Amino acid sequence: MIIGRFQVDELHSGHRNLIDSVLERHRKTIILLGVAPLANSINNPLDFESRKQMICSYYPEVIVLYVKDVNNDDQWSKQVDSIIGDVLSPTQTALLYGSRDSFIKHYSGRFDTYELPTEHAKSGTEIRAEIGREARASADWRAGVIWASRNRFPVSYQTVDVAIFNPDYTQMLLGQKKGEEGWRLIGGFADPNSTSLEDDARRESMEEASVKLDNLSYVRSFEINDWRYQNEPDCIKTALFVATTYDENPVANDDIERVCWFNLAELSPTDQWRVMPIHRNLVTHALMRASHIKTTKENK
């Protein structure tokens, strides 16, 4: 039995040598493919059926099964043993083959393992990176892209928006993008490498308005009716924050062309024509939170 992932578009020489070596040693060969919990990801772009068809096109005599990934090596090893037990007769046993950097160091089951030497070959990671660098001029390639887009889970993209006030909560800072007549809160997409949404809010405020934030607090989340996603299964959900800044002279940067301080009276729910429609609800809730903060401070 061979256990691997084979997350490539074609079997390379290392894969072929591994499978050929096992076929030469045994009358019955099974390949057990690892199946990740995340479908269509960077490291696991191909589903089980696609990889099975690829292997069987070269080796129709091979039995191809799958084992699901779990976050525990002992549980995973028991799964492997159970799958093997289902396909063996009482008089048969199995030898599990792997290559360099294979499953062997994670396996603690009851069957023996053997590491086969492999010639130098590009890793699956390197192959996938090369494939991702350029489009291919073929109908099959385009069909594959369409298939992948149709067979992924809908995505809720995370953004942050920050209602930035002056220290006495009498003015709010808004930005304006090129080509837009209305004004909007400072914000943007969350960074997958950041440690928190609060850090994203601070980063966006510095990138787009060149201001440092004080008294940052979370208000609530909202779905954003972004025109780019109106006919898509995906959507944008934003985390709304309020904060203050002592930086009196903000500077527009990034994709913000202008920034301006507005008196709160100019932004009341009945007078929000200046604000972009998709941000009006955010501004209303930010004003409510600012009013609460201001009242609480005055009553102390």
Secondary-structure map with pairings?
Blueprint: E1 2-4, H1 13-25, E2 30-35, H2 48-58, E3 63-68, H3 73-87, E4 95-98, E5 112-115, H4 124-131, H5 139-150, E6 156-165, E7 171-177, E8 186-189, H6 197-209, E9 214-224, E10 235-244, E11 256-263, H7 277-298
Parallel strand pairs: 1-2, 2-3, 4-5, 6-10
Antiparallel strand pairs: 6-7, 6-8, 7-11, 9-10
Question: Can you walk me through this structure?
Answer:
- The chain is built from seven helices and eleven strands.
- The protein is 31% helix and 24% strand.
- The strands form three sheets. Strands 6, 7, 8, 9, 10 and 11 form a six-stranded mixed beta sheet that branches. Strands 1-2-3 form a three-stranded parallel beta sheet, with helices on both faces.
- It has 300 residues and is of the alpha/beta class.
- The mean pLDDT is 93.
- The longest helix is centred in the C-terminal third of the chain and has 22 residues.
Give a quick precis of the structure:
The chain is an alpha/beta fold. Helices cover 31% and strands 24% of the residues.
The number of domains: 2
Question: Can you give the helix content as a percent range?
Answer: 25-40%
- Main beta sheet: 6 strands, mixed
Class computed from helices, strands and strand pairing: alpha/beta
Average per-residue pLDDT, rounded, comes to 93
Given this structure, which CATH class of the largest domain is correct? Alpha Beta
Find the CATH superfamily of the largest domain: HUPs
Overall CATH architecture of the largest domain: 3-Layer(aba) Sandwich
What string gives the helices and strands in order? EHEHEHEEHHEEEHEEEH
Number of separate helices: 7
